Amino acid sequence: MLSSASALLIVSFFLVHWWGSVFMQTFYLHRYASHGMFRLSRAWERTFHFLTYVFQGSSYLIPSAYAYLHRAHHAYSDTEKDPHTPHRFSNAFAMMWETKQTYTALVHGTTQPEARFNGYVPVWPALDRFGDTNFSRLAWGAAYTAFYVAFAPHWAFFLLLPAHYLMGPIHGAIVNWAGHKYGYRNFSTRDKSRNVLVWDVVTLGELFQNNHHRHAQSANFAQRVFEWDPAYGVIRLLRALGIADTSERPTSAELLPLPTHVATESSAAI
Question: What's the domain count of the chain?
Answer without folding.
Answer: 1
